Amino acid sequence: MRIKESKNKMYLRYRNKYIEKSRKWRLNPINREHQREYLKKWKLENQEKVKNLNKEWREANKEKRHQNKIEWYKKNRTKAIFQSVEWNKKHQSKRYLINKRHLQIRIEGNFSDLEWQEMKKAHNYMCAICKRQEPEIKLTLDHIIPVSKKGTHIKENIQPLCKSCNSRKGNRY
């Protein structure tokens, strides 16, 4: 029993020395650079593992990340607004798709692709405004009352128009 206790004490003493030694090693600027290089190399070699570890951490710390984001925004509000404006200028096409997706989420009604095909057939594959037919033009789905003006995505509010007529109509009704 005494032997076991003395081994544990020795272990703890050496463990603490090792911890202190490794802490000093990590704090040395030369070793920090070595660690950075090693870590960079390791990340390149284990990209999939790094990706999975990051994903796990993000999922485990959702609330913490959210709180950090809120605090950062409060401290750096003007910087955040400036970054947002710059991002929107650089990525106008992405911004358009994001807005379109948000509109689709808010749309009431459920008009399917099958119903769209039936509607085109019922209109004889013809534009409702200029009366040209489909081999000559490409028909697009048009909301009579635009979604941006609280129009719904139901059969009664949809008509087939060619691209040029739909563009000319814009968001008017």
Describe this structure in words.
It is a single chain. By secondary structure, this protein is mostly helical. Helix content is 68%, strand content 6%. The protein has a two-stranded antiparallel sheet with strand order 1-2. The longest helix has 26 residues, at 2-27. It is elongated and about 95 Å long. The chain starts with a helix and ends with a helix.
Can you tell me the overall shape?
Answer: elongated
- What class do helices, strands and sheet pairing give? mainly alpha
Number of helices: 8
Residue share in helix: 55-70%
Give the H and E element order: HHHHHHHEEH
**Unreliable runs, pLDDT <50, ≥5 residues?**
none
Mean pLDDT comes to 85
Radius of gyration: 31 Å
Query: What is the number of E strands?
Result: 2
Q: Strands of the largest sheet, in order across it? A: 1-2
For the largest beta-sheet, the strand count, sense and barrel status come to: 2 strands, antiparallel
Beta-strand portion reads 5-15%
Distance between the termini: 91 Å
Q: Name the quaternary structure.
A: single chain
